[in-house]
Amino acid sequence: MAINKENDFKEGVKKLQNRATMTAELLTEGGEIETFLMEADPDNAEGFLLAQRNRLKAIAEGNAKQWDEIENFVQAVKDVRGDVQRQNQSGAAAGGEGEAAAAGADEAPDYERSIQEAVEKVRLGKESDPNHVPLEEHEMVMSLREKLGEKVKKRARNDDDDDLEIVNNVGSDDVHALKCPITGMFFEDPVRNKVCGHTYDRKGLNQLFSTRKTKCPIPGCSNNTLSLGQVEVDDEMKLKVRRHKTREEAAKKKRDLDETMDDDEEGGGYTVLE
C-alpha cells in the first residue's frame, strides 16, 4: 500500500538529490574545477559553469517538488482510508439495513477520484499555511545552493523582516565530521542511517553490534533500534573524506618543497672548491 511504501518512494528522490549535491560540491564557486576551467578556457568557462549550476538548481527544485507530492499523496491516502473506515463503522452501527445501505452497496466507490480530490485538498491546505515554504526555499534547494558556494538568505517563518544569511564555508570540511563517531578514525566505508541521518563507518558499526548495543552512538539521538537494515552507503561522505585527504597530501608536498628550497637558500647554492 502507498502508505507503507512512502520511504521507498522517497529513497529514489534522496539518491537523486545526493548525486546533485555531490556534483554541486565539485562545481562550487572558487573550487578546483572553476579555477582550472577559468585558466584553460576563460572565454567559455563562465557561461558553462553558470549553465551547469542552473541545471543543478533546477534538478533540486524538481526533487523538492516530487518530495512534496509524495507526502501529499500519502497524506491523502490516509485521509481517504480514514473516511472509508468511519463510513463502514457508521454503517455497521446502523445495522446495514434500509434502502440507503442497499443503494450504497450496489454502487462501487470511486476511490481514485476520492484520492485525487484529497491530494488537492492537502496541497491547498499546505499552501494556505502561514509557515508554508515555497519551492525555491525548500531545504533541498537551499542546501544545494549552499554547496555551490552561494550566499543564501532564508526568511524566518512568520517574520518577513527577519533575514538569516547563511554562507557556505567552501572547501573547509570539519575534520571531526569526517571521522567515525565509534572508532574516531577517518571514514573508510561510511554508511548513513536512513532513520536518524547519522553516519558511521561500517567497521565501527560492526564493533558496536558485537557489544549487543542497538542505540545510535550520537549523543542525544533517540534512535534506539539501530540495525544494518537502516543504513546505506554514504557516497557524499566518501567524497568529502577523499577530497580532504587530497588537500592534506597537496599541502604536505608543498611544505616539503618549501623546506627543500629553504635549505638550498641557507646553503647559498654554491660549493667552493679550494
Write up what this structure looks like.
With 274 residues, this protein is mostly helical. The protein contains 8 helices and 5 strands; from the N terminus they run ααααααββββαβα. It has helices at residues 6-26, 32-40, 42-93, 99-106, 111-127, 139-147, 202-210, 235-266; strands spanning 151-155, 163-167, 190-193, 199-201, 231-233. The strands form 2 sheets. A 3-stranded antiparallel sheet has the order 4-3-5. Strands 1-2 form a two-stranded antiparallel ribbon. Helix 1 packs parallel to helix 6, helix 3 (42-93) packs across helix 5 (111-127) and helix 3 runs antiparallel to helix 6. The protein starts with 5 loop residues before the first helix and ends in an 8-residue tail after the last helix. Residues 156-173 and 270-274 have low confidence and may be disordered.
Mean pLDDT: 81
Helix percent reads 55-70%
- Report the end-to-end length measured between terminal Cα atoms: 93 Å
Radius of gyration: 28 Å
Number of helices: 8
Strand order of the largest sheet: 4-3-5
The ordered H/E elements are HHHHHHEEEEHEH
Number of E-type strands: 5
Q: What kind of sheet is the major sheet?
A: 3 strands, antiparallel
Category by helix and strand content = mainly alpha
Brief synopsis:
By secondary structure, the chain is mainly alpha-helical.
Keywords for this entry:
8 helices, 274 residues, single chain, two-stranded antiparallel ribbon, flat
